[in-house]
Amino acid sequence: MPVLFEPATAADVLGGMITPAVLISACGTLTLSTSNRLGRIVDRVRDLLKQAESLPPWNPADEDAQDRRAHIADQIAQQSARIKWLQGAVICLYSAIALLVGSSLAIGLSAVARGSFAWAPVALGLLGACTMLVAGGLLIRDARLATRSTLAEMAYIHRMVARRTGEPLPAAHAEATSAQAGG
């Protein structure tokens, strides 16, 4: 039986096959983090449902209830947008893992085929890295939406406290929260 590889070459091939593992590990960590974010959104939406179910019947004179209704609707819209961005990120991360595993396998197959398709591992690795880049962009977008949602929540709390206590908010804090929630 002919020897496919010299021992040194076999070690090089195996070393090359392991190289994408660093990016695969990074994808795994990002996937876990993103899945946790998705879980928190599901929990938040369930909490908003409970809040919506506990709203009093419609009364235009009840300013607190009207503000609460508007706040719940706004939060649902923001969580809906976030979950779509995160779904895209998870799909990209799973795709990147598949492409990077494919790159690792292609390194071995290319060596067996004596380099006749040496372009395949490079192409798969580049596609995997680009897919990770797209996932990173989607996660950045989600982080911005999460920040906006939290600032809107804080602005709602400030309005409720001011309405119930009759005391206005400190001007600098109220303006900063309001400006950031809108932008």
From TrEMBL:
Q: Name one Pfam family in it.
A: DUF2721
Task: Give the superkingdom in one word.
Answer: Bacteria
Keywords attached to this entry: Membrane, Transmembrane, Transmembrane helix
> Could you tell me which InterPro entries the record lists for this protein?
DUF2721
- Provide the transmembrane region boundaries: 13-32, 88-112, 118-140
Protein name as annotated = DUF2721 domain-containing protein
Q: What is the scientific name of the source organism?
A: Urbifossiella limnaea
